[in-house]
Design brief:
- This protein is mostly helical and 338 residues long.
- The chain has one domain.
- Helices cover 70% and strands 0% of the residues.
- Helix 5 crosses helix 14, helix 9 crosses helix 15 and helix 10 runs antiparallel to helix 12.
- The chain is elongated, with a radius of gyration of 22 Å.
- It starts with a helix and ends with a helix.
- The structure holds iron/sulfur cluster.
- The site of iron/sulfur cluster has 10 residues, from helix 3 and helix 4.
Amino acid sequence: MHMAQWGLKDELLKDANIWLCHNCNDCSKNCPRGAAPADVLATLRKAVIRENAFPPILGGLGDSKPLNILIALLIPVILLTVVFLTGGHFGIPEGDIVYSKLFPLIKIDILFTTTFVLAAIFFAISIMNFWKNINTEPEKLRASDKKLIPALIETLIEFATHKKFSKCGESKNRYLGHMLVVIGFVLLAIVTNWSLITQDILDWKSPFVLDDHAMEIFGSFATAKIYFTLFKLTANVGAISLLLGIGLLILNRLKERSYTSLTSSFDWTLLGIIFTVCVTGILSEFTRVANIPNIAYPIYFVHLVTVFYVIAYLPYSKLAHMVYRLTAITYAKMANLD
Ligand code: SF4
């Protein structure tokens, strides 16, 4: 806080310590002068993400400025419209609802896999920039007793158990919300890759429909049914966990409105997008099962747009915090700051 008061912005943006705060807001709630230290730190972390973003031109796309959100959403709208226009259907297709009729699976997989790979490369470069910036004393780090891998494992265990987060006084309920979001993301990532491997690599054309092709793959109706149930269960538990987690985080933020800060629009943007991903994902399933094509296909389109947003702008949105914090805490352990 003193460095912020003295205007030492450049030094603060290279300081790993600002990532040791996990934004529980206890200090802001209890500050007798209303100084909101948690907001100062959150603003600095947001600036760090922008500062280290690669390529710099994309750095703004994960933030909360209306124009940036509009551009960030317009990109997948255009790309998915191209997929739709080249799919061979120019209206709602007849017959059973099969989303790949409007959005051919292979094109969707190419689009999303390419986006994911590019986002991962850009994220890795951004994190390397960040590491170079916070590692102000490389000799000290080289001489440290704690090496990278043990420090990283220790940090990952802390993250997985939310050990430090659970020590929060005022905002304990955010712990449960965060855990549910993490579980939801992990389960949905498993399902996405499961589907990608079986459909695109193993060429199981209809593994989720109990037809002759499924019998051929699994050998019996019972095995096919178990496979089908396991897949759907994982997907639905993941979606419900994510929805509950996001719901809890939104409720928590609404409760905190009395001291909500300038930085919260950054959080709200991501909460809104992830909430839309969940709701449209669940509604896509319900409207497909209920056979309401006029609603199902447009909802699925919105679902794809928001999923694209989460993946493509991962290095620049609030979600990037997870990786920046993981890096900074690992560094702090190696440099004996933690
Ligand atoms: S009390 Fe919470 S928000 Fe404030 S600095 Fe500590 S961890 Fe960050």
